[in-house]
Amino acid sequence: MIEEIRVAAGAPGLREITAEVQKVVGAAGLSEGLCTVFVRHTSASLTIQENADPSAREDLERWLARLVPEGDPLYTHTLEGPDDMPSHIRAALTATSLSIPVVDGRLALGTWQGIFLWEHRRSPGARSLVIHVAP
User: Among 18, 46, 47, 132, which has the highest number of CB atoms less than 10 A from its own CB?
Assistant: First the structure.
């Protein structure tokens, strides 16, 4: 089963999408399999991260912003604004797809794990994700 979903990204940062992905997994009706999530953009990414304490996500967001700051004079790809090239680099350093096992019809995530869309742009609009669930 393949389904495309749209996620309102809003501001930069980590937005949990576990429930949306699990809904697709449930609709697939598989007891066991593999769920692949793919973001169809070059300035956003995906990650599996702690979903209990928001400070973990805030620390990650600040760390990546320090690692890849806006305004680096070496950037030449600046036509779409000062957040454009840093967002491409941040997406390249993280992941555009994830694979999660499905066990007993559910994503086999750990107790504190969640799936997150990591938005790197300030005004992105909605993001498109392709979710593939297979036996």
Answer: 46
Looking at the structure of the chain, the number of domains it has is 1
**Low-confidence spans in the chain with pLDDT less than 70:** none
pLDDT of residue 10: 84
Sign of the CA dihedral with 128 first, then 48, 112, and 14 last: negative
Distance separating alpha carbons of residues 1 and 134, to the nearest angstrom? 6
Q: Which residues contact 69 (CB under 8 A, 6 or more apart)?
A: 86
Q: Are 61 and 12 in contact (CB under 8 A)?
A: yes
Q: CA–CA separation, 63 vs 133, rounded Å?
A: 32
Domain that holds residue 77: 2-134
CATH of residue 68's domain is: 2.60.120.460
- pLDDT the model gives residue 87: 97
